[in-house]
Design brief:
Elements lengths: L2 H21 L2 E7 L10 H11 L13 H4 E5 L5 E6 L1 H8 L4 E6 L2 E4 L4 H4 L10 H9 L2 E6 L40 E6 L2 H7 L15 H10 L3 E6 L2 E6 L7 E6 L1 E2 L2 E3 H14 L3 E4 L1 E2 L9 H11 L3 E5 L18 E6 L3 E2 L1 E6 L4 E5 L14 E5 L20 H4 L3 E5 L5 H10 L4 E5 L17 E4 L1 H13 L4 E6 L3 E2 L6 E2 L19 E4 L3 E4 L18 E4 L2 H18 L5 H10 L12 E2 L11 H4 L6 H4 L4 E2 L4 H10 L4 H8 L21 E5 L7 E10 L5 E7 L5 E6 L2 E4 L5 E10 L7 E8 L4 E10 L4
Parallel strand pairs: 6-10, 6-13, 7-10, 13-15, 15-16, 16-27, 20-21, 21-22, 22-23, 26-30, 32-39
Antiparallel strand pairs: 1-3, 1-4, 2-3, 5-12, 5-14, 8-9, 11-12, 17-25, 18-19, 18-24, 19-23, 20-24, 28-29, 31-33, 33-37, 34-36, 34-38, 35-37, 38-39
Helix pairs in contact: 6-14, 8-14, 9-10
Length: 772
């Protein structure tokens, strides 16, 4: 073939591929303007006509389909519009059609994968008699968007619960293996949303479209938020005790949006929309994706709609720490939750041939044991390489079975799931595994229910083992497992994996908001999955121990349900404020909360790591003052983000709203945290931020301000005293920052309003812009 002919074929093949991709149908979420809907006809008819009008000019099989056949969802509560199968060309045309506000391409979100009630003080006197009576009297409903629910779990027993609230409009969708009796007075609703996933993949594995949880993640998060009390709960003897959710008397509504291929935005949006219409009070959403703009994130837009209806939305911060600027779900109307440890761990140890003992953690409980009195050959496939190689990470197919058989294998943490590394070692014939942290995880120990004897060790221990391997001609080791230990000090500690700030979209909005228990959490589990979640794991357990911000998110959702029960008239922002201003920033050794990623140095975490601090539910019941925020306040904030009228309309859903009341600074949003961004040069190097507090404590009360000092700026609070004469009275104050020195790194402090009974703390962050 001649060179010219070959070049012609390559060019035309490339053009064909581009055209095919351009015309290939995908799912798009289309937001429509309710005010532009025709007076005659239904919303579905209008949506179908809109799709049909944007059909491609070419007479393809897809373009000839009717508009209604292309629509897979319609939305009407937290969002107004539809999801439909469109080509990229049609989506672009649709953006220009009358009545179309925005078009979002399908996005795949990922899951951010009992001692915590006692650790959080939910068994203190403040909750005696309150936990059941208050929640039952208000009948708070917690909606959980996740992988579904395992209704047979004892954590969802409805013993002693009254009738389903009359205001509930939800349903119990049945399906294969999920009969109507799966719902009760505890699980009052269950729905499955798979059309977006089906459009992308052809359908869930096995064709099971019911709300039943075959993964376990959704059952775990639902039980963490609102599981009923279950005595003698444990994971094969680990963490033995009474397991209960944060709000054990609250109702649960399960919305299955995650499938083996991920969690699709069209399904998530439909679930939020339906949950709001059903009548949930709180949403727990332990998933997230990338962040590029508030108005481009369909979950952010849906959460805004939920907030408008008075629904509190708790979302996980993500598991991409300890790197900075890794947060998901950063919108100010969402409560963004990071992860921390508790005062319980699961100690195990590695004993080297030199008899040196190195501390670690494990949840291994199997028939295959290593004798602590005997030493076994130890091997590491990383060699002396300066950077990790696939074998050192124990990736699939990388281990030399001849060298691994009959030995304990040292593996580095990273890339693949921790339990999967153990399976690789087991398949290679290894007797056991030591899983060593790298610098990214420091000394944080996350325990796992491995398929073979395995111990996780910190970075320092991992280095010591590698040094031993280099210097010993016949390296050996063994392992010992010690069960459960409580009273660990220091605790809590910010988890190394917990995603960190600052907020990439708006430095003036501090994120995460708070941290909550997210390491080694015991809760209910699916009967269809083993504790390791590996397909090869045939074990079945009623409870499992997991770690991730996925676990911290439902802790906050459950506590928010308790606050909603105690204060039914509080807005979502008031509940968030109570959680933030009462959070603590010292551990049980009375030192600042530490960062697990700092390793043995014990470096203190900052507000970019822990937000306002660790939640304290008992104090949050009576915060004294709250920073309330309404819909219009959020609109004014969005206006300060320089959104175009069409971008703003994504949230307002109306062309009649403008930005005449835009905030002078994004930092003027009445947020419970204060983040000041100071320009480099005077006179602009001075900034005044405004706040309004509402008295929810005693009618007559006087608060005085105490503010941290900063090296790079002076901070002045005016007035320094707030005198309230009645409950629900609102008073304003200002905080003025004046730059006084050259500084490049941010500074952290706090502003605390104190009266005789309350300490209302707002974290303060000062960021200094560099001269251009």
């Amino acid at each position: 073939m001649s060179g010219g002919r070959r070049a012609w074929l390559v060019v035309n093949l490339a053009a064909w591929l581009v055209t095919a991709a351009w015309c290939e149908p995908s799912t798009y979420v289309v937001q429509m303007s309710r005010e532009e809907m025709p007076a005659s006809g239904t919303a579905l008819e209008w949506f179908a006509a809109t799709v049909q009008s944007a059909a491609a000019a070419e007479a393809t099989e897809m373009s000839l389909e009717g508009g209604a056949e292309r629509i897979i969802y319609t939305y009407e509560s937290a969002f107004h519009g539809f999801a439909a199968k469109l080509s990229e060309d049609e989506a672009l045309r649709l953006e220009r059609r009358p009545g179309v506000v925005a078009v979002f391409p399908e996005t795949v979100y990922q899951l951010h994968t009992t001692r915590s009630p006692g650790f959080l003080g939910l068994q203190s006197e403040a909750f005696v008699g309150f936990r059941s009576s208050a929640v039952a009297s208000y009948d708070v409903i917690v909606g959980v968007l996740d992988t579904g629910i395992w209704p047979e779990s004892a954590s969802f027993s409805d013993a002693g619960m009254g009738p389903v609230p009359a205001r509930w409009k939800g349903a119990c969708e049945t399906g294969r293996g999920f009969p109507a009796k799966s719902c009760n007075r505890k699980i009052i609703g269950a729905r499955a949303f798979s059309r977006g996933y089906e459009a992308f993949t052809g359908g869930p594995d096995g064709g099971d479209l019911s709300p039943r949880d075959h993964d376990g993640h959704g059952t775990h998060t639902a039980a963490t938020a609102a599981g009923s009390a279950v005595a003698n709960a444990s994971l094969q003897g680990y963490a033995l005790g009474t397991a209960r959710g944060m709000a054990p008397a609250a109702r649960v509504a399960a919305y299955k949006v995650c499938w083996p291929g991920g969690c699709f935005s069209s399904d998530i949006l439909s679930a939020v929309d339906r949950a709001v219409a059903d009548g949930v009070d709180v949403l727990s959403i332990s998933l997230g994706g990338g962040v590029s703009a508030y108005y481009k994130d369909s979950l952010s837009v849906a959460a805004f709609g939920a907030m408008e209806k008075g629904v509190f939305v708790s979302c996980s911060a993500g598991n991409s720490g300890p790197e900075p600027v890794t947060l998901a779900n950063v919108s100010p109307w969402i409560t963004t939750v990071g992860a921390s440890t508790m005062d319980r761990d699961f100690p195990a140890a590695v004993v080297l041939g030199t008899r040196r003992k190195l501390a670690g953690a494990s949840l291994y409980k199997g028939v295959r044991h290593l004798s602590p009195e005997k030493q076994y050959p130890l091997v590491y496939f990383g060699g002396n390489a300066s950077s990790p190689d696939p074998a050192s990470l124990c990736l699939e197919g990388t281990l030399d079975t001849k060298l691994a058989v009959g030995k304990i294998v040292l593996c580095d943490r990273g890339i693949t799931p921790r339990v999967q590394k153990g399976q690789v070692v087991k398949q290679a014939g290894g007797l056991g595994m030591i899983l060593a942290n790298t610098a990214a995880n420091g000394e944080e120990l996350v325990a796992d229910s491995h398929l073979l004897p395995a111990v996780a060790v910190g970075q320092a221990a991992g280095k010591a083992i590698k040094q031993y391997l280099k210097t010993s001609p016949r390296p050996k080791a063994t392992m010992a497992f010690s069960g459960t230990r409580v009273g660990v000090r220091p605790s809590p500690v910010v988890a190394a994996f917990s995603s960190r700030g600052p907020n990439l979209l708006t430095l003036e909005i501090l994120k995460p908001d708070v941290v909550a228990p997210g390491v080694n959490i015991l809760a209910a589990w699916s009967g269809a999955a083993g504790p390791s979640s590996l397909a090869a794991d045939r074990r079945r357990v009623a409870f499992n121990i997991l770690s991730g911000t996925s676990m911290s998110c439902p802790h906050v959702a459950g506590v928010a349900a308790l606050l909603k029960a105690s204060h039914p008239d509080w807005s979502p922002a008031a509940i968030k404020s109570a959680l933030m201003t009462t959070a603590y920033v010292q551990d049980n050794t009375r030192r600042p909360l530490r960062d697990a990623a700092a390793g043995a140095t014990g470096r203190a975490s900052t507000a970019y790591d822990h937000g306002a601090g660790h939640i304290d539910p008992a104090r949050a019941l009576d915060p004294g003052l709250v920073y309330d925020i309404g819909r219009q306040d959020y609109v004014n904030f969005l206006c300060s983000q320089k959104l175009t009228p069409l971008e703003l309309r994504v949230f307002t859903r109306s062309s009649k709203e403008s930005c005449r009341r835009a905030l002078a600074s994004p930092g003027d949003l009445n947020y419970p945290a204060i983040s000041a961004v100071l320009p480099a040069h005077p006179p602009a190097a001075k900034l005044t931020l405004h706040r309004t507090v509402t008295n929810v404590g005693a009618a007559a009360s006087t608060y005085r301000a105490v503010v941290s000092s900063f090296n790079g700026a002076t901070v002045v609070v005016e007035p320094t005293t707030l005198r309230f004469t009645r409950k629900y009275q609102k008073l304003q104050y200002t905080v003025t920052f004046t730059r006084r020195a050259r500084r490049s790194s941010p500074e952290f402090g706090a502003l605390v309003w104190k009266d005789a009974a309350h300490s209302v703390r707002s974290p303060v962050v000062v960021t200094y812009q560099s001269p251009i």
